[in-house]
Amino acid sequence: MQILIVMQKRISILVLTLSIFITASGQVKISTLQSVFIYSAIKYMEWPNDDLTDFTITVLGDSPIYDELIKVSQKKKAGARNIAVLKANTVDEIVKCHILFIAPNKASLLNKLTNNHVGNSTLIVTEQQGALGQGSDLNFSQRGEKITFQISERSLSEKKIKVSSAFSTLAEK
Prior knowledge:
By secondary structure, the chain is of the alpha/beta class. The protein has 6 helices and 9 strands, in the order ααββαβββαβββαβα.
C-alpha cells in the first residue's frame, strides 16, 4: 500500500510538471513532453520477458518525437537495458519492439498494424482521436494547452503488459 501511494505521488508530480511545462511555456514542444512521458511510462509498465537485448522503441512515420526519443535514449535506461530508438517508414520495416509510436501521417495503418501484432506485447502509442477504438494502447490528445492520455487496459492485459494502478488512474477516461 505504501509503495502504491509513493508511485501515485510520483506520477502525479510528473503529470503536474508536464502540464505546467505546456501551459507556462509555449516554447516546449509537444514531442518533448510526449517523449518524457513515454520514458516515464516505461517505469510504470512491465512487459513479459523477451529475448531483446535493448528496450526498443520504433517510430513509424515522420514525427519530431523520434529526435526527442533519441535524446532520452542517450541519457536514460529502461531498468538495466539501454534504450534503442528505431525509425520505420513502412510496416515491413518494423522489427520486434516494446513500444511502437505511430506518427499521425501513418495513422491509417493502425488497423493493419494491430492485426499483424495480435498476441505481440508491443505497446502501440498514437496521437490520433479515436485511436483507442482502432487498436492503440496509449493515445495522446491535446485539450487546449494541456496534454492528456488514454490507455486501453483491456488491450494491455491481452498483451500481458502490466500497468500500475497508479498510472492507469491518471489516464483520461
